[in-house]
Design goal:
The chain is of the alpha+beta class. The protein has one domain. The protein contains 4 helices and 3 strands, in the order H-H-E-H-H-E-E. A 3-stranded antiparallel β-sheet has the order 1-3-2. The longest helix has 10 residues. The protein is globular, with a radius of gyration of 14 Å. The mean pLDDT is 91.
């Protein structure tokens, strides 16, 4: 994703995020929560992620989007 100007429209933000080749290939992308809130709002963004059939998690100020319909599991060692 290229650096967005401060007055970018929600449509342009979505086009930039979801037009990325990793999205088309079913990979994983991440976006800062600060940018998501600035350009489209957290709830609207999450709704768009799920509308596309994707899943997302949040950690350390980032939203990680799994751009496919596969299940997401938190991995833990067996000893815990």
């Amino acid at each position: 994703m290229q650096k967005q100007p401060p007055n970018v429209s929600p449509h342009a933000f979505y086009a930039d995020v979801f037009g990325f080749h990793l999205v088309r290939d079913g990979k994983v992308i991440r976006r800062s929560i600060r940018d998501v809130e600035r350009y489209v709002g957290r709830e609207a963004f999450i709704e768009e992620v799920y509308r596309r059939g994707f899943r997302a998690v949040e950690n350390a100020g980032q939203i990680v989007i799994f751009c496919n319909r596969e299940p997401v599991r938190i991995l833990r060692p067996r000893s815990h």
